[in-house]
Amino acid sequence: MKGSWRDRPTGSWFSRIWRPWVSLNPFRGRGRSINESKPVGIRDLVASPEEVRIRPERRWRVIGGFFLLLFLILVGRLFTLQVLDYKSSVQAVDSNSLRVTTIPASRGLVLDRTGKPLVTNVTTTEIRLSRAEAALYPPIKGALASLTGLSVKQINSDLNNLQYDPYQPAPILSNAPAKEVEFIKLHPSEFPGVSVLDVSTRSYPNGGNIGAQILGYVGPITEKEIRANPGRHYQTDSTIGKTGIEAFYEQYLRGHDGTSTLEVNAFGNILGSVHTTAPTVGDSVVLNIDTGLQKALDGYLSSDIVKVRQTKDPTTGKYPPAINGAAIVMDPNTGDVLAMSSYPSFNLNSFVNGLSNNVFHQLLGEGAFNNYAIQGLYTPGSTFKMITATAELQTGVLPADKYVDDTGSFKVPNCLQGHQCFFHDDESAGAGQINLPLALTVSSDYYFYNLGYLFWAQQAKYGQTPIQNVASEYGLDNYTNIDLPNETEGRVDSPTVRKILHAEAPKAFPNVSWYTGDNIEMAFGQGSTALTPIALANAYATFANGGTRYEPEVAAAVINAHNKVVVRYQPRVLGHVNLPPAVRDPILQGLEGVVENPRGTAYSTFHSIVNFSLSSFPIAGKTGTASNQAHEEPNSWFVGFGPVAHPRYVVLCVVAQGGYGADAAAPVVAEAFNYLVAHPIKPVSLKPQLSIPSTATTLKTTKTTG
What we know:
Blueprint: H1 13-23, H2 56-84, H3 86-95, E1 98-103, E2 110-111, E3 117-129, H4 131-136, H5 139-148, H6 152-159, E4 170-173, H7 178-186, E5 194-203, H8 212-215, E6 218-220, H9 223-228, E7 239-241, H10 244-248, H11 250-253, E8 258-264, E9 270-277, E10 284-287, H12 291-309, E11 324-330, E12 337-343, H13 350-353, H14 357-366, H15 372-375, H16 385-395, E13 404-406, E14 409-411, E15 422-424, E16 432-434, H17 436-442, H18 445-457, H19 459-462, H20 466-473, H21 495-504, H22 516-523, H23 533-544, E17 548-550, E18 555-559, E19 565-568, E20 573-576, H24 581-596, H25 603-609, E21 620-626, E22 635-642, E23 649-656, H26 661-664, H27 666-678, E24 699-700
Parallel strand pairs: 2-10
Antiparallel strand pairs: 1-8, 2-3, 3-4, 3-5, 5-24, 6-7, 8-9, 10-18, 11-12, 11-23, 13-16, 14-15, 17-20, 18-19, 21-22, 22-23
Helix pairs in contact: 12-27, 16-20, 16-24, 17-24, 18-22, 24-25
């Protein structure tokens, strides 16, 4: 049979294996039964060599096709890299050999209204060390430690500081002595990876204590700040304005960083500098602040608070804690902020020379970093009476010349709640027969208790919130939009505000209803009303100029390095208060009497402190003694403006838990007017006689070997 195992060559490997098995097969030679199946052998599965056709052309086609496919893929990839993705490919290759580091730009200056510098820059020399070189040549750390006096441990700590870019040399020594810098320059081979960098740091010609909260400080940028400013090209080692003017005008002050393109090898070692772009100094900000006035106001406020803490309150017998305070001087005709003080304060040089964690947290706990002029919330007390008086005369609820008998104790008509029906004057004797001007002059609580009651009793005619509506026109329940960060919004107590406060803090504000007594308290600046000093100063500025509310402005302009004006900030009107003569004149008469009338609450204070003629430069104003929690001293306020006929200045002072307004706050305002009369504020100068460099720091790169 063709294909049988018997036909295979006898000497084949198949026969040598198969024949022994056949000889031992017990069924060999026997016939098969009809139902016996035919065994299947290997021959049935594998074709014989004669049956296989030799087809070499098919194999070559398969192999050729495979290699042709690989070739086409290769050509396509090359086309993509060389033509379609040429630019990105070149960039990728370059990025493997070039590293770009930043050269920080010097910040712009901060100048006062006369062009005097408040914040400048000082260039110091900094020694830096490359991380890559330090890893390749560990002895360099010891050599650098011997030269600088630093420990190797400190150098390692600086190298591991994640604030700095891996390809940016890490700062090892700031304000390096000239001898050490010169030694490094003369022996570059002994200090591979060591570079010398001229850096710019903030300097304060006035000592760092003047206007600290206004000016603010700069510090290392955080990851959160980098993410919040994606388009401004900040680096991990950048500095950024943290508070005050430094933060608010960061976009102008910052400048534009330069770049240094460095060549590195495959191990990341720096081979040299390829290209350097010089940084550009930031623009400078000219403030409306007058340096002399600012320095004087800071001194008046701090001295006053120290004195208040040492003077016993004659009424309570306690020494007022006077925990903090603020003072502001504004131009009521433009909204310009001429000076702004906050207490307690700090020295800005602390952030240049280094501030320990202990000192930082101590200042933080004291509230020294708060700007209480824009962030403090205080019950306004009697200073709010000007607002209620405006509402009184705008609505006609009570004529200005209508006399009321101030008995010293006001009983709410038809009240059945016992002691809650009575409201008492601070002076129990009462003021007797008074009209609106005299009520303001002597600060009669009784008169304004009565106004609060009248408004609530006639709410069908005047609505629920006539006083609050006027307060809103004065801007007391809103942001003033001053150009400083983190301003706090004030609030004026009302039925709506009461519900909001309760929802936010039920335990602190348990009452949600609004009663006659609440309206009475609100009318003379008590209850849940809490105002910022800047908002109240701006309200009195609005009254002083006849009803135009301006946006408070600390900055006057931005100028570039060539003394060209980039931005000029003009007075911006936020709103108006309707103050026709029939409304304004009676109120003004009462405010003048506070200082001029012997019965006025600030008469004795001003006449004992001022060293100018009050008849030649008359002052109008209002004291405020605002109650706080039980057993706490009241907040002390005074806000005044002058000269009365053509007001040029509004001055405010508040001392938290300072006692009577005439005793704690009024002296600061009187002293401020002493300075203003003797040193009238000059116009803003936009051409300071100051040389501002057009470029900032330059990077001195020491070529290293890799």
